[in-house]
């Protein structure tokens, strides 16, 4: 049964007979595509997304031509532009048709009307607070556990693809949509090195996957949070102002699996070219997860393996830096 109500100006839609958060999100999704034209059109448009597949050793990368993503990919995220626009994640600015379900912490779940995934949720904080992960990582783990194995949760840093760097939010999409969801075990087996393994916690470093990453697996919330904080501080040595640049992909099935992609650049050089040399791509978690989004057809037509390799190379950290993080982590946690 669908119940709509207002709580502190929040347009909530809930069914109290449903207990699982992922089921509540599913129900919200069905209701929104039936009652909100923008969302309905957004999800219908997914059927016309064109896909190119590129095979590499032990993995695959997809390029998607998805014109609905133009706003997000080309979003101006400098502080002047951000300061001049109404925040689209603040409750008071949400479209009238948009409804929410409450999640844990200060978070609400919204249906993203400009989807990449067949079911794509934005999970903003109720409060207008900056996109910063350090104190919110624990909430990320809790949200991902509550969303269950049907969805993968992800985070884009304020300079790593988040189109609202001024408003804390996560996103979630169908598990298995990003290539890394199913490739992960094989990739860690073939390209991974164990950084740490004790009790219930395993940490790996992975190179050779075009975009280097650090991953953590555990069923222990506390050890994941403290390990994340160590990695965060090691990455901070680059001297960033807000936070070390990163994207995070997190899933839960019996235990948590957290994949951290440290970044060195917000956007590749192609983004800033003019005319025919321009390629509009703004890599975020989904792109690093193996699904590269191109909102312009002329760019999609030009995508080839070399371009994919170069885009990843330009925005992610090199092998040497990954080794440094791994070694330092061992030193700190071993001491
Ligand atoms: Zn806001």
Description:
Helix 1 packs across helix 2 (37-45), helix 5 (137-147) crosses helix 7 and helix 7 crosses helix 12. This protein has twelve helices and 15 strands. It has 335 residues and is α+β, with helices and mostly antiparallel strands. It has a domain at 48-86 and 129-180 and 242-315. The mean pLDDT is 92. The chain has helices spanning 21-35, 37-45, 70-73, 79-84, 137-147, 179-191, 221-235, 269-272, 285-288, 297-302, 305-315, 319-334; strands spanning 3-7, 10-14, 50-56, 59-65, 101-102, 108-111, 120-124, 151-156, 169-174, 192-198, 201-206, 213-218, 246-253, 255-262, 291-294. The strands form three sheets. The chain has a ten-stranded antiparallel beta sheet with strand order 5-6-7-9-8-13-14-12-11-10. Strands 3-4-15 form a three-stranded mixed beta sheet. It has a two-stranded antiparallel ribbon with strand order 1-2. The protein starts with a strand and ends with a helix. Bound molecules: zinc ion. Zinc ion binds next to loops.
Secondary structure layout:
Layout: E1 3-7, E2 10-14, H1 21-35, H2 37-45, E3 50-56, E4 59-65, H3 70-73, H4 79-84, E5 101-102, E6 108-111, E7 120-124, H5 137-147, E8 151-156, E9 169-174, H6 179-191, E10 192-198, E11 201-206, E12 213-218, H7 221-235, E13 246-253, E14 255-262, H8 269-272, H9 285-288, E15 291-294, H10 297-302, H11 305-315, H12 319-334
Parallel strand pairs: 4-15
Antiparallel strand pairs: 1-2, 3-4, 5-6, 6-7, 7-9, 8-9, 8-13, 10-11, 11-12, 12-14, 13-14
Helix pairs in contact: 1-2, 5-7, 7-12
The structure holds zinc ion.
């Amino acid at each position: 049964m669908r119940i709509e109500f207002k709580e502190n100006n929040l347009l909530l839609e809930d069914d109290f007979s449903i207990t699982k958060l992922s089921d509540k999100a599913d129900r919200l999704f069905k209701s929104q595509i039936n009652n909100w034209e923008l969302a309905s059109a957004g999800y219908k448009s997914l059927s016309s997304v064109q896909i190119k597949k590129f095979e590499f050793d032990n993995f695959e990368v997809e390029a998607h031509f998805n014109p609905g993503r133009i706003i997000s990919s080309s979003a101006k995220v400098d502080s002047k532009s951000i300061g001049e626009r109404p925040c689209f994640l603040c409750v008071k600015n949400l479209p009238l048709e948009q409804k929410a379900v409450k999640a844990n912490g200060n978070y609400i779940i919204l249906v993203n009307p400009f989807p990449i995934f067949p079911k794509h949720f934005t999970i903003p904080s109720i409060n207008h607070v900056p996109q910063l992960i350090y104190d919110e990582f624990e909430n990320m783990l809790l949200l991902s556990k509550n969303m269950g194995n049907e969805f993968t949760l992800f985070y884009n840093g304020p300079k790593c693809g988040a189109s609202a760097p001024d408003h804390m939010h996560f996103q979630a999409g169908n598990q298995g949509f990003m290539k890394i969801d199913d490739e992960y075990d094989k990739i860690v087996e073939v390209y991974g090195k164990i950084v740490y393994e004790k009790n219930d916690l395993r940490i790996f470093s992975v190179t050779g996957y075009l975009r280097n990453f650090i991953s953590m697996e555990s069923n222990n919330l506390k050890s994941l949070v403290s390990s994340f904080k160590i990695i965060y501080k090691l990455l901070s040595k680059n001297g960033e102002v807000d936070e070390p640049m990163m994207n995070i992909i997190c899933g839960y099935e019996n235990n948590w699996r957290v994949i951290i992609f440290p970044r060195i650049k917000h956007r590749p050089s192609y983004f800033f070219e003019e005319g025919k040399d321009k390629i509009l791509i703004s890599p975020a978690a989904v792109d690093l997860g193996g699904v590269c989004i191109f909102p312009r057809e002329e760019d999609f037509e030009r995508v080839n393996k070399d371009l994919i390799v170069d885009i990843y190379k330009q925005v992610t950290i090199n092998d040497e830096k990954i080794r440094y993080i791994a070694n330092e982590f061992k030193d700190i946690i071993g001491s």
